[in-house]
Design a protein that fits this description.
It is a single chain. By secondary structure, this protein is mainly α. Strands 1-2-3 form a 3-stranded mixed β-sheet. The two termini are 27 Å apart. It is built from 6 helices and 3 strands, in the order E-H-H-E-H-E-H-H-H. It is 43% helix and 8% strand.
Length: 177
């Protein structure tokens, strides 16, 4: 899925990104931060790690990875979701919207608007150009717990993510540096 939009800032292109953004729904931006291999099934884990590997390559080669905010099923769950399970959970769109508001506040508060070619707010259709400074900032704020209290309540992975953040994201598949 190539993301087309009128940009306020130039959209950076890269060798690894190949002009293709990884489509992610809101809450998967948080899942990326500390994913360390625990998954619903081994196949799901391999699939998710493949997406993270693609993002890691873009970070290493280009210095950023292009991520597109989408509604509903995305690159993480679409090919792996049996019976369209994720669309049946009413809490996920609420969680997605909360994450997008959190990202908007985070980016605004810390002056990281250059990662959003379309400008603020972060919403469906926005491209996020994830670079190491933004990744470090997201992990720092996730570690302090405020986002987990506001978004992650009730998520079956909340405990695992909280423990990973407490360990400083050691073992996380998404590489910071």
């Amino acid at each position: 899925m190539a993301v087309l939009a009128i940009s306020k800032l130039p959209v950076r292109r890269g060798v690894a990104a190949r002009d293709e953004a990884v489509a992610l729904r809101g809450h998967h931006y948080l899942c990326l931060l500390g994913y360390s291999g625990a998954a619903y099934t081994p196949a799901f884990g391999r699939h998710f790690e493949g997406l993270i590997d693609r993002i890691n390559v873009a970070l290493r080669v280009d210095g950023f990875a292009r991520l597109a905010v989408v509604r509903g099923r995305d690159a993480v769950c679409d090919p792996m979701c049996p019976g369209r399970f994720c669309n049946s959970l009413r809490v996920l769109p609420i969680r997605d919207a909360r994450v997008l508001r959190y990202l908007t506040r985070l980016i605004t508060t810390h002056g990281a608007e250059d990662c959003l070619p379309q400008g603020l707010p972060v919403r469906v259709g926005t491209e996020v150009q994830l670079d190491r400074p933004l990744l470090a900032l997201m992990r720092e704020v996730f570690h302090d717990g405020s986002i987990r209290r506001g978004v992650c309540g009730g998520c079956p992975h909340e405990r695992r993510c909280t423990e990973g953040a407490a360990r400083g994201f050691v073992g996380a598949k998404l590489e910071l540096g």
